[in-house]
């Protein structure tokens, strides 16, 4: 008969009494009608993380370290300049080379670099709130800090920190340690895969024998993720991240970008519960009703206000121009509906 390792009964007891009840309290099936904005946001964040992790594995985008070629959708990307082009010394030959260089060298980069300004122009900082893997990691760090210290920030309590948010230290301490080990390391392995073939990395992990490049990639990314998620977090989103700054700038100047709006005509309905302030991990004060470049259009304040005042009666909504951009149940007070606007 196989013998149980020492401590095994304790681990089972811990699992039964602490972890399983915690998991039970969460809703894992998405009821399409009742799914909250946060549920959808978590789904989109997880899906985008999986996409980032799988891109090099599926050869959607990576650099082949052996051939030094860029692989895009399984094919090697080259300027397409054939050796015979160089033999043609005429002006037409020169133009052909310049055209190939422009088409396959410069244009793709311009298009790639235009993604974030364009996203900012149309959707503000939606990418930061709904897709960015670093943003998701920082939110997880906030959550664990909240459960361990009773505040989101490592350096002190903020006015918008939720009250009584502290959880069981042992449980959340264990989760934090596991996250601090596995998330940076898996991020390191996944991102190194953009520069070294993922198969090569997994072979080296299986043999526990690493080349300098793979070791440097995994350790470098892991340290970066660990430091930013523990000590820096949303400060990086506000002041450092180039993608965030591009969205911020273009979202700010765009007349059409998606942004948070408050129904100021109904401000008297506000109960001053401060739910919207507490929900905002970017330290925006939504009730100021000003365009704030830190707002990532996450919708947490919309949900908080809907919880306080009733679904569809909350004071906030996300809008392109004047129309509400959310499903009707989130902003019936503004979106045109057959039954007319909700009255308070
Ligand atoms: S103001 Fe609202 S939508 Fe903007 S980041 Fe804060 S909680 Fe999210
Ligand atoms: S959540 Fe709504 S009701 Fe509560 S303070 Fe904010 S605006 Fe007022």
What's this, in brief?
The chain has helices at 8-25, 37-57, 83-87, 91-123, 126-130, 133-149, 169-192, 198-207, 212-232, 234-239, 242-253, 275-279, 300-309, and strands at residues 61-64, 69-72, 75-77, 259-262, 316-320, 323-324. The protein is mainly α and 344 residues long.
**What is the H/E order?**
HHEEEHHHHHHHHHEHHEE
Task: Please give the order of strands in the largest beta sheet.
Answer: 1-2-3
Strand share of the residues? 5-15%
- Mean pLDDT across the residues is 84
Specify Rg, calculated over alpha carbons.
25 Å
How would you classify the helix and strand content by structural class? mainly alpha
Uncertain regions: pLDDT < 50 for 5+ in a row? 1-8, 26-32, 335-344
Number of helices: 13
Shape, per Cα inertia axes: flat
Count of structural domains: 3
Q: Could you walk me through the main structural features you see in this protein, from its secondary elements to its overall organization?
A:
With 344 residues, this protein is mainly alpha-helical. The chain folds into 3 domains: 42-59 and 126-246, no CATH class; 67-117, no CATH class; 258-330, no CATH class. The chain has 13 helices and 6 strands. The protein has helices spanning 8-25, 37-57, 83-87, 91-123, 126-130, 133-149, 169-192, 198-207, 212-232, 234-239, 242-253, 275-279, 300-309; strands spanning 61-64, 69-72, 75-77, 259-262, 316-320, 323-324. The strands form 2 sheets. A 3-stranded antiparallel β-sheet has the order 1-2-3, with no helix packed on it. Strands 4-5-6 form a 3-stranded antiparallel β-sheet. A hairpin with a 4-residue loop joins strand 1 and strand 2 (69-72). The longest helix is centred in the first third of the chain and has 33 residues, at 91-123. Mean pLDDT is 84; it is low at 1-8, 26-32 and 335-344. Bound molecules: iron/sulfur cluster (2 copies). One iron/sulfur cluster is lined by residues 260, 279-280, 282, 284, 286, 295-301.
